[in-house]
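Entry:
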Amino acid sequence: MSMVTLQLGQCGNQIGPDLFGILSSDALHGPRRSYGAASRERFFHSTAHGDLVARAVLIDMEPKVIKQSMAKAAASGTWRYGDASHFSQKQGSGNNWANGYCVHGPRHREVVEELVRREVERCDRLAGLMAMMSVAGGTGSGVGTYITQCLRDTYAKSFILNHLTWPYRTGEVIVQNYNSVLTLAHLYQLSDAILVHENDMVHKICSQLLNIKHISFSDVNRVIAHQMGSVLQPSLSADSHGDYSRNPLGELVSTLACHPEYKLLSVCTIPQMPSSSIAYSTFSWPGLLKHLRQMLISNSKMEEGIDWHVHPHVASERPRSLTGTSFNVSLANLLILRGKDVFSTETGRSYRAYIHQYIKFGISEEDFLESFTSLEQVIASYTQLS
């Protein structure tokens, strides 16, 4: 099934090329032929000459960033944007949500809807639509919200995912708080799910995990694109029977946003490190899963600095760790594993071996997991002594 992506404003149109670059590489060099075919169908359509063209519509009220994005895609040599899949004007929205939502959006509605319609009609099976935008400026937030409203009216039965980039706390735009509030309030009524990336957290990942000295928006965008790709690329589940053609947006919505009051999603990935360090690192699935679980429990987006004192609460209790961090509560979680020997993790023959002999006497899986976590903290404490 195929997704149509809308890149809105400067932020959406800067993240887009990085995202499709990752997706195209995976589609062309994926581990299996069926995987590559599913990835291509999901994110690209092919020309008569076999060129990969992104299933995307680029929208901005200024032409500069769109031109840069299209040039970057063409320079990759592996994929490109459609020649007539973009729309821009000569004047921006002035970082004003109202200007984008009330003026530019309605003024250019027909043109944008026609561009989206063309991309939708190129899909044999439409999985849904994804709108990528910032919440701080005027075009991404204001026009993006208005276009999302149009998509909801026109494609009432399709899944709509909004990807939002949250601004730095220190401020990029003086009225970013106004724009952010208006964007989120409106999208909560329109979107099926809202995936959020916070610039402050991604910046921290670039600094502490990737060891980037002078961090630019390009660095931040690459991390966001990588995390998005890891979620949106094809994957298998226990009941998929080797079929990669499931609806990716439908799975995200039905699994993670199963109640209309809870639509906010976040991504947590592990490991995160410079590509130059990968050759000198060794990972095991049990170790990665153990760290990822504690990251979830302690609401940490980075492996570094995990609070191992946080434990799952019992009944109505909500204990805090020694550092004051409370146990993270979430409605639902979706685990996606990618890599070699992935099927040896939870689906292997030895998974949960002999556990039933403990359960019948009152020891649960949670008891085992808490014991693993406690010993991990002991090991970490002794390691700090060396």
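The chain has a mean pLDDT of 84.
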